[in-house]
Write a structure and sequence with these properties.
Number of strands: 3
Mean pLDDT: 78
Radius of gyration: 22 Å
Low-confidence stretches: none
Distance between the termini: 56 Å
Shape: flat
Strand content: 15-25%
Number of helices: 1
Length: 100
């Protein structure tokens, strides 16, 4: 896999939507004697870092299987109160009687 570099833009790259001063990610994939340089404002996924179609599909399937929710508040997972290090009070689950 290619090395991904985090770079601050010294000039505009209008084809990639990058303006001077933006921080973007850059990586190159070798193809024969030449290479292709990619630039993106977001960090690339593993499926974007390979030139092989087979590996790209494999990595894409793995990314879909291990997709983490972006907003943990919607999943009901343990959320710590900000700055306290304590868990919030337990919520009653459907079909159970709350204690107390």
């Amino acid at each position: 896999m290619p090395r991904v570099q985090r770079v601050k833009a010294r000039k505009d790259y209008p084809n990639d939507g990058i303006k001077k001063g933006d921080t973007y990610f850059k990586w190159s994939i070798r193809t024969g004697r030449r290479g292709i340089t990619y630039r993106n404002l977001k960090r690339p996924r593993a499926s974007q870092l390979t030139g092989s179609d087979k590996k790209s599909r494999l990595y894409s399937a793995a990314e879909a299987a291990t997709c983490q929710p972006q907003y943990p508040l919607l999943t009901g997972g343990p959320i710590r109160a900000r700055g306290t290090g304590r868990l919030p009070p337990a919520r009653a689950t459907p079909g159970t009687v709350p204690a107390g």
